[in-house]
Design a protein that fits this description.
With 424 residues, the chain is α+β, with helices and mostly antiparallel strands. The protein is built from 15 helices and 16 strands. It has 2 domains: 253 residues, Bira Bifunctional Protein, Domain 2 (BirA Bifunctional Protein, domain 2); 89 residues, Rossmann fold, CATH 3.40.50. The longest helix has 18 residues. The protein is elongated.
Length: 424
């Protein structure tokens, strides 16, 4: 019988990679906490209607990548979907729990797995982990800049090089509608020369043409109308203020007018973090923007909102390529406990909870037949110290402590063992 493998597009994060994951997720938590974001946990699945209303029909996520699920006894109306991103679920929770009545602003963060039925490729999985921050209750440019500063602080603390912040403004919905009409007027005569995807987007969502990576579309991008030309003075002032905050914080950025969000509820600031790869190619680490229109679209009150999501799988892969984790050490127990005989085994059993209660990490192999076998296991555990107890040591209230790096051995009283291991 063939062994069962992990599902296509998923991965197991084995123990040797856990220090890297723990380092990155803990850095994310510390950064978010220091910038007044509070943790929230949301379900892994939601009513599918939430994502249809938030992300929108006609998008790749909804039309091609959504994981639909239904309980075995569910009715046809009870259709659920694994979350493809975090924002919709956090917004649903904000509305459901009346967070608009809390002291404003409300800043939330979460680290969670998201699911997309996409074509798996290197560094891109159908289940991946995201660091998400959401800022509610402020329509001003400071909130936009605060979210960008949070993502920059996180990436900067990791020590990544080659980072680039791409920045744009989407203006208001009225300005964006006017710009969409200009794009349609520009691209309609080119229908026979642009990609099939862009032809399909031309009438439904022309801004998404600017997202295209197809060479047939890129040929015409430089001459296309620019959104900045459709902005009114208030939108321009909002964007100028965001840029001034970033410049005060010395966060470099590059203006990119082709960076868009195709959904109507997005407005004003949009941004994306990219990093230069080993061969000079740019990879996206994540991004975000302002989405004031989403809350009323999901049944909530009109509240300013801006957020960001960063893909931790891609970030960790980039950290590995750049050697960020070289200084991290694998887990090694503080002590490996060795029983020399039956009396020693009893003493070891009694000693384990005492050491754990003191905050020390321990390992042992009491099922092994000989001291030699236990010492071999101690060496493989990478612990520095082997704590050896036999009948003589147990009777005297002592232990033999062997340095597995230098092979030196000394006797320590059991009462002093915790202090010895802590200070060693």
């Amino acid at each position: 019988m063939n062994p069962i493998q992990s599902p296509r597009g998923t991965r197991d994060i084995l123990p040797d990679r856990q220090p890297a994951w723990q380092y990155v997720t803990e850095t994310a938590r510390q950064t978010a906490g220091q910038l007044s974001f509070r943790p929230i946990t949301i379900p892994s699945y939601e009513e599918a209607a939430l994502f249809h209303r938030s992300i929108g029909d006609g998008t790749d996520i909804i039309d091609k990548e959504l994981f639909l699920t239904r309980g075995i006894r569910s009715t046809e109306e009870e259709t659920y979907a694994l979350r493809p991103e975090a924002t919709a679920g956090v917004v649903r929770a904000f509305i459901q729990h009346g967070m608009h009545t809390w002291p404003q602003p409300v800043r939330l963060y979460t680290i969670l797995n998201v699911f997309r039925y996409d074509r798996p490729q290197k560094g891109r999985y159908r289940e991946h982990t995201q660091f998400d921050v959401e800022y509610f209750g402020d329509t001003g440019p400071f909130a936009d800049a605060w979210v960008i500063f949070t993502t920059w602080s996180f990436l900067n603390r990791l020590g990544l090089s080659g980072l680039e912040l791409q920045l744009n403004t989407l203006g208001t919905s009225v300005e964006r509608s006017r710009y969409a009409a200009q794009l349609q007027e520009y691209f309609r005569p080119l229908r026979d020369r642009i990609s099939e995807d862009s032809v399909a987007r031309l009438e439904k969502n022309p801004l998404r043409i600017l997202d295209s990576k197809d060479p047939r579309d890129k040929e015409f991008m430089d001459a296309a109308p620019r959104l900045s030309e459709a902005l009114g003075p208030e939108s321009q002032a909002h964007f100028d203020a965001v840029r001034q905050y970033l410049e005060k914080w010395r966060i470099p950025y590059r203006l990119n007018e082709q960076l868009v969000r195709g959904l109507d509820y997005y407005s004003h600031t949009a941004f994306e973090w990219t990093v230069s790869g080993q061969e000079g190619q740019q990879s996206s680490l994540g991004g975000g923007g302002r989405y004031d229109g989403l809350l009323p679209q999901l049944g909530g009150s009109t509240v300013g909102a801006v957020g960001a999501g960063l893909g931790l799988d891609r970030i960790i892969e980039t950290c590995e390529q750049q050697g960020v984790f070289d200084r991290l050490t694998q887990h090694r127990p503080d002590a490996y406990l060795v029983a020399a005989d039956t009396a020693g085994k009893t003493a070891v059993i009694e000693l384990i909870p005492e050491l754990i209660a003191a905050g020390l990490s321990v390992d042992a192999g009491l099922d092994k037949d000989s001291v030699g076998a236990q010492m071999k296991a101690a060496a493989k555990s990478q612990s520095r110290w082997a704590v050896i107890i036999g009948a003589t040591e147990a009777e005297r209230g002592e232990v033999a402590v062997k340095d597995l790096e230098s092979s030196e051995q000394r006797t320590v009283s059991q009462a002093e063992l915790v202090s010895f291991l802590r200070d060693a």
